[in-house]
């Protein structure tokens, strides 16, 4: 089975932060249909933090589903001007250290996956 599609991988950005800080992780490509945020701890499999999916009828803002046991420290903000999102993690703790990345999925091009990554140290 041959897979085709468009892929973009952005160079990871490293954020050095302190316990108690807030970090904004931007997924700055045009979100058309679905954005998913993942986290990954050292030597562990990635885990889904949240997905944000556009409603095909109402394209004003995506509906958000949290997978990583919803936590009030996590917020997804939406920028309607460029259809991008930002994951905000407040009151950072040592357990938040890891690699974070978003993927974008487009219904028009089901194989297209964009990866944007951030590493929190």
Automatic annotation (TrEMBL):
InterPro entries: Ig-like_dom, Ig-like_dom_sf, Ig-like_fold, Ig_sub, Ig_V-set
Gene3D superfamilies reported in the protein's UniProt record: Immunoglobulins
Domain annotation Ig-like: ranges: 20-121
Superkingdom of source: Eukaryota
SMART domains: IG
Name of the protein in question: Ig-like domain-containing protein
Organism, as annotated: Astyanax mexicanus (Blind cave fish)
Lineage: Eukaryota, Metazoa, Chordata, Craniata, Vertebrata
């Amino acid at each position: 089975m041959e897979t085709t599609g468009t892929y973009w991988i952005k160079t990871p950005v490293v954020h050095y932060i302190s316990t108690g800080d807030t970090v904004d992780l931007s997924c700055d490509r045009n979100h058309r249909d679905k954005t998913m945020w993942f986290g990954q701890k050292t030597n562990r499999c990635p885990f889904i933090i949240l997905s944000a999916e556009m409603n095909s009828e109402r394209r004003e803002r995506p509906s958000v589903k949290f997978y990583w046991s919803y936590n009030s420290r996590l917020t997804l903000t939406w920028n309607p001007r460029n259809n991008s999102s930002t994951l905000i993690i407040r009151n950072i703790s040592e357990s938040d250290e890891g690699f974070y990345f978003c993927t974008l999925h487009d219904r028009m091009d089901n194989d297209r996956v964009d990866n944007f990554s951030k590493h929190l140290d």
